[in-house]
Please model this.
Amino acid sequence: MRLVKNTAGRYVPVEINGLKSEPFQGVGAYKPKGRKAAPKISSCIDFPEDGNKIVPDLKTALIKAGIRDGVTISTHHHFRNGDYVANQIFDIAAELGIKNLRWFPSAAFECHSPNIKHLDSGVIHHIEGSLNGSLGEYCSQGRMRGLGVLRSHGGRYQAIQDGEVHIDIAVIAAPTADPFGNANGVNGPSACGGLGFALADSQYADKVIVVTDNLVPFPCVPWQIQGNYVDYVVVMDKIGDPSKIVSGTTEITRSPDRLYIAELVARFIKESGIMKNGFSFQAGAGGTALAFAVELAKLMKKENVKARFIRGGSTKFLVDMLKEGLTDYILDGQTFDLEGVKSMRENPNHVHTSPFTSYNFHGKGNFASIVDVVVLGATEVDLNFNANVVTHSDGRMLHGIGGWQNCLFSKCTILAIPSFRDRIPVIVDEVTTLVGPGELIDVVVTERGIAINPIREDLKDAVKNSNLPIKSIEELHHEVIKICGKPQKPILGDKVVAAIKWVDGTIIDSVKQVLKAQWGIKLPGAE
Amino acid sequence: MINIAEAGRKGIDVRSDCYVYIELKKSGGLKIDIESRVDVLYGKSIRRIVKSGCEFFGIKNAFVKVEDSGALPFVIMARLEAAVKRLGKGGRKEFLPEMLDCAKYPTKRERFRRSRLYLPGNEPKYMLNAGIHKPDGIILDLEDSVNPSEKDAARILVRNALRQVDFYGCERMVRINQIPNGLDDLNYIIPHNVHVVLIPKCERGEQIKLVNNQIAKILKRKKSVVYLMPIIESALGIINAYEIASAAENVVALTIGLEDYTADIGTQRTLDGKESFFARSMIVNAAKAAGIQAIDTVFSDVSDMDGLRYSVLEAKSLGFEGKGCIHPRQIPVIHEAFAPDETEIEKAIRIVKAYKEAESKGLSVVAVGNKMIDPPVVKRAIRTIELAISTGKLEKKWMEQ
Model:
C-alpha cells in the first residue's frame, strides 16, 4: 500500500479499498467540486396507490431491494447497544450465500460483534463507520479484509453527498412507522428519540427499507423519515432492546476526579465570560460531560444566566434545564435517555436535528460553528493540542469519531479529560493517531490543571484574574510523565488497517495494525 | 518451607494495582512472566523492576508472574516485596522506591485540620489523585479499611506511597493499628515523612508514651517531629480524654470515633446525636484544656451533602475545628461550612485591625470601640481571617482595602 505524507505530517494511503483518496491538506483547504451525488430517479406510479409498501419480512425486502455480492448496506446507530436489526441483515445475507458486502453503519457497537463471523467468512468485506469495542479490536488486529474507514457524523453525510460512498440499500430501523414508510423515533416501545443519522441514507440510497415494531396507520407523525423516500416496510416483533437503546452513557460519573474536572470546566466557562445571556453550548453523553452540564446549570442559576440553545445528545439533565427555563431550545442530534425521548416528543422547543443541519461539510453553513462552547473527551492530547479519539496510546482502535471532529468548529472547544488513565498518559508528546488538529482545540481541562492553547490569547486574558489552575500543556505533560513514567514507543505493524477521514473527506491519518491481542479481551472466533 | 506466595490483586475490576506470584525453584534461574494492560507502553520497565527486585532480595531461582492492571512502579515494588516477605525471604531488607522531592514537604503544628480524607491503605487507585481535591489532611489507613490478612502488604504499600505520591501540600497522615499491634506499623511509616500518626481506640495517656518511645527508637537522634492525633472511641477513653490530650507535646489534635463509642456505651448512633453529645463535648473540652485542636468524627453518608453541611455546622457550634470524610466531594462542603460567615469576618477584621494599630502605637491594651480585647480573642480573630482567606471569602490583601 502506497502511503504519502499529508500536511499534518502523517502517512496516509493514496488509495482506500480501490478508491483514490485525497490526503489531508489543512483545515479549510480542500473543497470537493462538481455536483452532488443523487439516487436513481423514481416515479410514484411504480409504487402502490394505496400507499401500502409492507412486505412479509426483512429477507423478502432485501431480495426485492436487490441484495447481491459487493453492494453497500447502511444502518444507523440510534439504538446504540440495543440494536437487533443490523445483525439480522448479515445473517440473511450469509443464508443467501452473498459475499463481499460493504457495511456502512453510522456507528457499530458491541451488540454488533456477532458480525465478526461474517467478516471472517467474507459475507462482509469491510466496515466503513465508527468501530467500537470488539469490532475495533478485530480491525486493529488486521483481520478485516478491507480497510476500515472512520468518518465523523458530518463526514459521513459529506461522503454520501460527494458520491464517495454510494448506498445500495439503506435499512432504517424505526420505532414507529406507517405502511407508506413515514417513520419516527419518538413513539413506540423502542423509542430512541430522533432518526437524524438515517436521513442521508433515506435520501441518497437506491433502495430504502424501513423496519419497525410499531406500525401505525398513515400518517405517522412526526415523519422524521419521509415515506416518499422509502421502498419497503417490514414489521417485526422487536427491533431493539429498549433498556440498551437509551442507557449506558447517561449516568453522571461518581469519580471524584471527573466530577472535579466537570466543575473546573463549568468554572472556566463562567470565568472566561462565555457564560452569558443568549449563549449556547454542547455537551455529550460521557459521564464527565453530563456532570459538566449539571455544574454549569448551577452556575447559570446562581448568576441568573439563560442560554439560547443547547446542542445535545440530550439527557434528562438537559431536559431539566429546558424545563427550568435555563435555555430556550435543545437542538438534539441523538437522544440518550427516556426523559430526552419524552421531551422531544412533547416539547416543541426540543428540536430534532440531523448531521445535515448540524455538521455537514456540504451544507450552506452548519450549526457547529455557531455554538459558543463545546465540551468533548479524547483518548490523547499532545503538546501541539492535537487530539485523538479513535485509538488508545497502545495503538488500539476502540472508539468511533461520532460528531467529535465536527464539534471542533465551535467558538471554544474544550477537552475535559483526565491527565492519565490507569498509568496510560492522556497528555502525550505526540498523539498516536491524529483525529483533530490542534489549531481547533482551545482548552484542555484535566484534574491537574487547565491548559489554554497559546493561539487563544483572548481566552488566556479572560481568565488571568481568576483562581483557576491555569498551566501550560508542557507543565501538565511533565507532571503526568513524573507520575506514570516515560512510556516506551508502542511497536506497531506496518500494515494499515484503517483510515481516518477529516470532515472534508481527506485522509488525516491512518491506523496501523497492533501486534499483540489485548490481554483480557477475547474476540469471538479468536484462538 | 513455603515456596509459593502471592500478593496484590488481579481481575477485570482491578485498577492501578498488580498481582505478583512467586514460586521458588531449586535451580533454573529466574523466569519472569509479565502480563500487563500497559504492556505496550511500560512492559519493559515492569520487567526491569521485577528483575532488580528479585536480585535485591537474593531470589535466584524462581518463577515470577505479574498480572498488572496499570500499577505504578511504587505499587509493583510494594507487591513484589510483600510476596517475597510472605515467602519468609528478604529478612529486614526494604525494596524502597526513591524518596521524591514532592514527598518531602513539612507540616506545621498550627495548620488547619478542617477536613481529613480517609484512604484505604491497601488500595493504590485512590492514592494518586487524592491530593488534587485539597483536603487539609490525607489519611492512609492501616486499620479498619484493611483486611487482617493484608496488613503486611498494606504497610509496605503505604510506606512506598509516602515516598512517591504527591499529596500536593496536604498533611500526610497514617492511621496505625490499635496499640500494641500498631507499634510495629510505625517502623514502616516514621522514616518516610509521615506528618501525623492517628492512634485508634486510644484509652490512656500511657499509649501515647508507648508510641512516642517507639518513634524515638526509629528516629534515633534525628530531630524531626511527628505529630499525633489520638482517636477516642470508648467510654474509658472519653473519661481519660484530658490525660490523653496532654500526654505529650506532639499531640496536636484529639478526635472521636462514634461508631465504636456508641457500641461501647450500648446504644446506637442517631441523626440528632443526643447519645454522643456528652462525649463530643468532653473531647472539645479536653482538647481546649490541653491547647490542641478538637476534631469531630467521620461523616460517612457520601450521598447526603445537606446532612454533611448540617453536621459540620453543628460540630462547629460545639467547638470542633475539623471533620473526617471518606469521599473527596465532601471536602468543599466541609470547608465551606467551617468557613466564617460575613459577621464573623467583619468582627475579626475590626479586632485584627485594632490589634495592629495598638501594636504600631506600642500600646499593650487592644480595644475595639470602648471594649477591651483579650489576647485569646485576637488569636481567634487571626484564625478566622486565615480561614476566610483559605475559603476564598476574603481577599489575601484584605488589610489594604
About this structure: Chain B has three domains: 4-86, 101-338, 342-400. The radius of gyration of chain B is 24 Å. Chain B has 14 helices and 14 strands.
